[in-house]
Amino acid sequence: MTSFPTAAKLTVIAVAIVGATGVTARHAAAAASVAVVPQSAGDPVAGRTLYQACTGCHSLDENDVGPRHRGVVGRKAGTVPGYAYSAALRTSGMVWTPANLDRWLTNPQKVVPGAKMYFSVANPKQRADIIAYLAQQR
Ligand code: HEC
User: Fold this and answer.
1) In angstroms, rounded to a whole number, what is the distance separating the alpha carbons of residues 38 and 40?
2) Residue ranges of the Cytochrome c domain (predicted)?
3) Which residue from 119, 120, 123 has its CB within 8 A of the most atoms of ligand 1, so it is best to mutate?
4) Domain limits for position 30
């Protein structure tokens, strides 16, 4: 029985540590989610609808006015076989990360001067949604 108060005290200390750690972890998670919002907030379902704006020139599986899109997220720019890219995009050396796609859709010619896509999406949320949709088209 003499050990009971000690065990109780240890339990109190452990709960206090877990509580403190929990707060720290929540704060860290909140900070992390703020940092990744531009890339992670996209809604792929909304993006699917918004992608209709791209289909005047692109499709997922056929080269058209623009190159086909399936698998574009993570791909090196200007590398779809059978599509006649501008020299600027073909030699850009860029990889289509979500961040680069966001910059591209904001203003293609600013990202790759000499690129021949004349279309942009001004709304950041819509860009994120479209990128989330494209990321699912593996
Ligand atoms: C008016 C026609 C047009 C529209 C609309 C258009 N694009 Fe493009 N897109 C192009 C052309 C042309 C290229 C090739 C650019 C080059 O070779 O410089 C291209 C290239 C791209 C590339 C580079 C792909 C690669 O293989 O490197 C991406 C990504 C892209 N477009 C995304 C989009 C998205 C997403 C939309 C809709 C929000 C869109 N485009 C709307 C014409 C268009």
Assistant:
1) 6
2) 42-138
3) 119
4) 1-40
Question: In this predicted structure, what is the pLDDT of residue 40?
Answer: 58
- 126 and 78 within one domain: yes
Q: Which ligand 1 atom sits closest to the C-alpha of 65?
A: 12
- Is it the case that residue 26 has pLDDT exceeding 90? no
| Per-chain mean pLDDT for the chain | 82
Say if residues 69 and 137 touch (Cβ distance below 8 Å).
yes
Number of domains present in the structure of the chain: 2
pTM equals 0.79
Looking at residue 41, what is its pLDDT?
82
User: Which has the closest alpha carbon to 109: 88, 130, 125, 138?
Assistant: 88
pLDDT tens for residues 56-102? 999 999 999 999 999 999 999 999 999 999 999 999 999 999 999 99
Same domain, 60 and 103: yes
Q: CA angle, 41 as apex, 53 and 56 as ends, to 5°?
A: 10
Answer yes or no: do 71 and 122 share one domain: yes
